[in-house]
């Protein structure tokens, strides 16, 4: 069925409701050459799976990202830190650096972050700055070259704050760690790694870090798909998340090729039937029976995504029944082998 026929079908159904039916994945052919043009599927094929990881300062975001990267060893994964996109401080700001709020959204160059992420999503390598927290400049050290990958982990305290950044993400994780634990980690990190004294760290925490967490970071928790209590110490949660990511990646890889594809949730019943029809010892009778059952499940699931209109009918007993009227033309049902 060509795209024109599908458009006619949709336009013919006035007041129609659509449940999961997409037009952007259909192939469009050049009228002169008859060859397929660049479609939405080809554009999606180049886009990676983006995972956002947010949370308070010293909540364990980087630890969580490292553990995810280690367990996703069969995927090409890169880590992009929001800290790399701090603004360079001016001379006036440097003179009063202890009064500068590094936890405020305005402290980050969000436009540059968006530009870098868009390039990575479209298959282009980017140079990520290495921010120096002693000179407060991003040009002291050479930039880090990041190549396109299958999975991008975007980590930072405020990666959920800007809606434009959130829209880039396929999955959003919030690392939720107790405030006392975060403060203890911050004291240890800032005194050892950044050479600051404890009094300065505590003063900065009370003036900027805690208020910014309450005002800007904690409210973004509502955007998270998954919340991890205790951060990197929660190994069970991270293991479950990695399994979930692997499942999503499998669906994402298929949907990059078929943007109008829907994947039926795998249950023990479906896995059991798949096992039987793959087993060379299965009898012909059982093979036909379970194959037929699987096809029925696919057709039933597909019917749920057909356009429909509400319709009233009179039953043989004279009662009025309100139901739905499916589209009369079914394009087809396909079983895609992985």
UniProtKB/TrEMBL annotation:
Instruction: Name the protein family.
Output: In the N-terminal section; belongs to the uridine kinase family.
User: Does GTP-binding appear among the keywords?
Assistant: yes
First-level EC class = transferase
This protein is called Uridine kinase
Record CDD domains:
UMPK
| Pathway membership, UniProt | Pyrimidine metabolism; CTP biosynthesis via salvage pathway; CTP from cytidine: step 1/3; Pyrimidine metabolism; UMP biosynthesis via salvage pathway; UMP from uridine: step 1/1
Enzyme Commission number: 2.7.1.48
Task: Please tell me the species this chain comes from.
Answer: Citrus sinensis
Please list the residue ranges annotated as the Phosphoribosyltransferase domain. Answer: 266-337
Boundaries of every Phosphoribulokinase/uridine kinase domain copy: 50-236
Q: Name one GO biological process term.
A: CTP salvage
Q: Which Pfam families match?
A: PRK (PF00485), UPRTase (PF14681)
Molecular function, one GO term: ATP binding
| Gene Ontology, cellular component aspect | cytoplasm
Keyword Glycoprotein found: no
- PANTHER family, per the entry: URIDINE KINASE
Q: Which NCBIfam families match?
A: PRK05480.1, udk
> Which keywords, in A-to-Z order, does the entry hold?
Allosteric enzyme, ATP-binding, GTP-binding, Kinase, Multifunctional enzyme, Nucleotide-binding, Transferase
| UniProt catalytic activity | cytidine + ATP = CMP + ADP + H(+); uridine + ATP = UMP + ADP + H(+)
């Amino acid at each position: 069925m060509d795209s024109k026929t599908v458009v006619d079908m949709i336009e013919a159904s006035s007041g129609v409701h659509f449940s999961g039916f997409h037009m952007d994945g259909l192939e469009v052919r050049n009228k002169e050459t008859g060859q397929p043009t660049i479609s939405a599927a080809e554009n999606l094929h180049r886009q990676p799976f983006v995972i956002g990881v947010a949370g308070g300062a010293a909540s364990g975001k980087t630890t969580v990202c490292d553990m995810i990267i280690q367990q996703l060893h069969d995927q090409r994964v890169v880590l992009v830190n929001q800290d790399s996109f701090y603004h360079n401080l001016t001379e006036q700001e440097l003179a009063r650096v202890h009064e500068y709020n590094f936890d405020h959204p305005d402290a980050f160059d969000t436009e540059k972050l968006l530009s870098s992420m868009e390039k990575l999503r479209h298959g282009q390598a980017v140079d990520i700055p290495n921010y120096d927290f002693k000179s407060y400049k991003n040009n002291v050290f050479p930039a880090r070259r990041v190549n396109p990958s299958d999975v991008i982990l975007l980590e930072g305290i405020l990666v959920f704050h800007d809606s434009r950044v959130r829209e880039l993400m396929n999955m959003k994780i919030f690392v939720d760690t107790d405030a006392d634990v975060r403060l203890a980690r911050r004291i240890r990190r800032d005194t050892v790694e950044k050479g600051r004294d404890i009094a300065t760290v505590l003063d900065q925490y009370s003036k900027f870090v805690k208020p910014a967490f309450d005002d800007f970071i904690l409210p973004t928790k509502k955007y998270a798909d998954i919340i991890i209590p205790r951060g990197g110490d929660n190994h069970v949660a991270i293991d479950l998340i990695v399994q979930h990511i692997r499942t999503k990646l499998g669906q994402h890889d298929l949907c990059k090729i078929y943007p109008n594809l829907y994947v039926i949730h795998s249950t023990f019943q479906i896995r059991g039937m798949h096992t039987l029809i793959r087993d060379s010892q299965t009898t012909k009778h059982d093979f036909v029976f379970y194959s037929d059952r699987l096809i029925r499940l696919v057709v039933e699931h597909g019917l749920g995504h057909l356009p429909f209109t509400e319709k009233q009918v009179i039953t043989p007993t004279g009662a009025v029944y309100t139901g739905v009227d499916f589209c009369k033309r079914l394009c087809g049902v396909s079983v895609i082998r992985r």
